Amino acid sequence: MVRYSDDLSLLEARNLFFCDAKLGPDGGYRDRWVRVEAKPIPFYFPNWPARVAAARLHDFHHIAAEYETDWPGEAEIAAWEIASGCARYHAAWILNFGAFGAGLIVAPRRLFRAFLRGRDAKTNLYKSGFDESRLNDITVGMLRDQLELRAALPSAGATDVGLFLLLCVASVLAWLPFSFLTVILFWLITRAKFQIT
Known about the structure:
By secondary structure, this protein is mostly helical.
């Protein structure tokens, strides 16, 4: 992953982020579908306006916090955003719960550390908002300071552990329908194949 120096403008950093993540020159904000790499087969979901509004802020969180765009990195940024709060961005809540659940499998320790870091955050862009007309005026360092991302990782208290476990249960429950549908689809395909032969 590209490391974003404090003196880069957010416009420069976002352009680097789009290039590094292979999102295209506009970050895919105008695409009709979002492609998620899930090897061996990618899956797609609609790029609805609420998702685009959340993604614009989510991408700046990636840049400031320096979480990568691979599965563990997406899980980390999801944990950080859930812990710091996604405010009225319902698409962010929904998509982050999915990434949080994946993080339980691919990077549970990193997920917990990012969750603690988010619990310690006083604000994020979902809460404070962001004026995109100022992309050239605000540096990555200024955004890191605003989001207080330079603070040392806090130690976990009982409340932190309890809330994390509650989110783990909620994210597993959120994944269950998807798993159930996958099993049903596999069963239907297998059944149809045997009926044809």
